[in-house]
């Protein structure tokens, strides 16, 4: 029984760390508010000659987010892009002649990359949900079958590990964000499938500043929850000691 309890405690620590990381990712990608706010702030920031307004860029960015992380509904994405182009043409900001350009459309390679992301997310979502359930079950087991002090140690270990890992990643991002961005993509996608020209619509919608903002939200939420886990862990350990 002692060996089982130790194994559950270790598994709970690992699953807690993964769940804390997943919570930050979910906060950045599941609700629309992050995409809307970051798109309004940064979409088109590197392309002053883009024919699209901030509202049009935001509409397309949100549709692209839904396509990539939620529904993979091509109709919604195509309709948002078509509406933005029609509006730009009607106002004289763009002409029909350049409508097929990658500065105003998402070509096949861009859609293919979004599909690649969707496939990764489709596998990750249920896997992370299962890990979260196992985390809760494991923490409950530690609290009931062992004691609250052991639960505190698990919370401290899981939270501290994530804080240390994210601190290292944060320093890396400050020193070389492009390098970190490249390594992260190389873990999931083939080389050459996720790089696009600076004036392409995909990069116009989601420039580097946009992804830095997403990373900031992820970092803030995950670190906030990790700090909370550590504080609760210390509290439990202190009470048990008393």
UniProtKB/TrEMBL annotation:
This protein's UniProt keywords: Membrane, Transmembrane, Transmembrane helix
Keyword hit for Transmembrane helix: yes
Record field: transmembrane: 123-142, 154-175, 187-205, 217-236
Organismal lineage: Bacteria, Bacillati, Actinomycetota, Coriobacteriia, Coriobacteriales
Pfam families linked: Lit
Protein name per its UniProtKB record: DUF1461 domain-containing protein
Keyword Cell membrane annotated: no
């Amino acid at each position: 029984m002692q060996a089982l309890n130790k194994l559950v405690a270790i598994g709970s620590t690992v699953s807690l760390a993964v769940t804390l990381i997943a919570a930050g990712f979910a906060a950045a990608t599941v609700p629309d508010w992050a995409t809307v706010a970051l798109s309004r702030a940064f979409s088109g920031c590197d392309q002053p000659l883009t024919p699209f307004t901030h509202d049009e860029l935001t509409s397309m960015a949100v549709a692209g987010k839904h396509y990539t992380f939620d529904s993979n509904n091509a109709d919604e994405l195509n309709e948002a892009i078509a509406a933005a182009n029609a509006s730009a043409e009607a106002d004289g900001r763009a002409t029909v002649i350049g409508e097929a350009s990658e500065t105003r459309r998402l070509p096949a390679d861009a859609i293919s990359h979004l599909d690649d992301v969707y496939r990764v997310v489709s596998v990750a979502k249920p896997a992370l949900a299962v890990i979260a359930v196992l985390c809760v079950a494991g923490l409950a087991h530690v609290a009931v079958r062992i004691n609250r002090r052991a639960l505190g140690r698990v919370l401290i270990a899981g939270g501290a590990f994530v804080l240390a890992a994210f601190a290292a990643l944060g320093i890396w991002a400050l020193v070389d964000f492009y390098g970190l961005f490249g390594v992260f993509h190389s873990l999931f996608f083939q080389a050459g499938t996720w790089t696009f020209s600076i004036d392409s619509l995909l990069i116009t919608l989601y420039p580097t500043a946009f992804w830095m903002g997403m990373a900031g939200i992820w970092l803030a939420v995950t670190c906030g929850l990790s700090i909370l886990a550590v504080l609760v862990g210390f509290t439990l350990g202190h009470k048990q000691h008393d």
